[in-house]
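#struct-pred

JT: dropping the chains for the assembly here, can someone run the whole complex?
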Amino acid sequence: MKRSSLRLRLLLGAAIAVFLALALAWVGISLLIHQHIETREAAQLRSVAERVVAGLTLDAAGKPMIDPAPSDAAFQAIAGGTYWQAIGPGGSAQSPSLWDQSLPEAAASSDDWTTATVPGPFGKQLTMVSRRIQPDRRARDVIVRVAADDSEMRDALREFDAELALSLAFLWVVLSLAAYFQVSLGLRPLDRLRRELDRLRRSPAARLSDNHPAEILPLTEAINAMAAARESDLARARRRAADLAHSLKTPLAVVAAQSRRARDEGATSAAEGIDRAVTAVGAALEAELARSRAAAARGSGGESNPSEVADGLISVIERTEKGEQIAFSADLASNLRLAVDSSDLAEMLGALIENASRHARRHVAVSGDLEDGAIVLRVEDDGPGMEDAAITRAMERGVRIDETGGGHGFGLAIVRDLAEATEGEFRLGRSQLGGLSAELRWQSD
Amino acid sequence: MRVLLVEDDPDLAEDVARALTAAGFVVDRSGNGEDAWFQGDVEDYALVILDLGLPGLDGLTVLKRWRSAGRTMPVLILTARGDWTEKVEGIEAGADDYMAKPFAVGELIARARALVRRAAGHATATLKIGELAIDTARMTASIGGQQTQLSQLEYRLLNFLGHEQDRVVSAGEIAEHLYGASDGQDTNAVEAIVTRLRRKLGSRAIETRRGLGYLLTGQIE
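RK: done, full complex below.
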């Protein structure tokens, strides 16, 4: 998953938000529980303290006396964990559990019960309630304190906090997983979009479907509009290349005709110079045309029927001087369909059939079939064929295969470029007929 | 011999016309499709040289109109695009030959002569075998009234079988007729031609006698 991924961004966002919410919940719940428990503890201590106050009298010396004293076992055992103490002007009374110790003085001994957490005797933390009262009319103050060791309660609260944190962490994991599924589900339409875009990249004739979610639809519509513009640009580029050829070739034919006139008028060497120049310009023009055709063919899509294309080409080549002498056989399934534009396929097959008929003795065979999921078109002849070394050399870029063939020398180079541009393979080999076998292969999807 | 030259570039038309005249043709010229179509429709020409890229009506349309109106004069098309699709379209529209620009005028004259000779050189004669009629002048065949264009080799093979009516002819014999001296390999070529003929004429027009050879029956499927 990449850093800039939308999925990661959504997932991280969800995980962090859920984490913060759960952390806040943990703090809040813990605070509430602590408060609640402490209030209950204080209430219990107060009810004990009320009993102490109820039995409180002062003797003549002003020493408080508690009768009856609370008899709970916890007040009897030394350091029993629960303590009371009453401090009067003439001395103090306290529970046996306090032994010779004293409860610490609270921050402010007011006229109402106050609760505080104080460091107590025997090294324990205590929760203590205390208040000042006047047991008789002589207005002598007695301070009453009741305290209990709360370490067990604190341990329990700590345990509760830890368990709460653990279950909230588990909840975080579950919610994050839920967010992951939600994000995956939400992003699934994008996967489909990506597949459709991939198809569009390979074939400008393809379009994105219109059954995407409403949020994506404006995007796909914009992309489709762009694809349509690109397709028409491609078509225009092709037309321009053809127009350019037309506009240059006719003047070139004029020049060629002029050379003949010059020759007739005796300017033989000038005519030869013109002829050479016309041939060179014509070849450069053909090469440029072939290049622009290959560029336009790249990803241009389309569909062709190889059987029909081959039949048409054979009917043309049969009329050439060399083709008249050759027997052509075309063995292509009529239902074979190739995802290559008809005119591009015609340029490839045309060059191959013409080349084969120039080198054949009697027979040129064109065949087409589906082999291992690939559409394979073969043009074979019964001519002398080529040596392996010559085949290797011929397939190198920019090499003219047949120097004697006039302007047709780069025919095989055109085939190679067009095959590459249409994502096909071009191979030369030895034919069973004895001559050259030229093979075009496209993986069919 | 009258030739109609249809070419919109005046310089090129001038030079080609000059060469044709020097070669003994009488040249009529036309610079746009509409005029050319009219001239070709009403006059009898021994040959038409037709540029495909014309103002007004394009060359391919002109050619198709002539053919559908039953005009059968030989037509040589000049193409500037020079791509295979255009050549195929030209031949399918009824052209007899094509040349891609820029061409050598000498070659154009030679091709023009060959086309005229092919069309006019033979006396009209028709060979009939069953439902099949072979037109030896136009090198075409028709079966059950359906006209079919034949290549040079197809015509020669069919003509040979036609002259050997009711006889089974071996592939070796045909190869010898087509190619002069022959070896074993050539029977493959003969088989290829027969296959193409059957696609044009129907599979029953030529029967195969296993181990013996071929028999022209001229039957419809």
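JT: nice. Residues 2-120 of chain B form a domain with the Rossmann fold fold (CATH 3.40.50.2300). Chain B has a mean pLDDT of 86.
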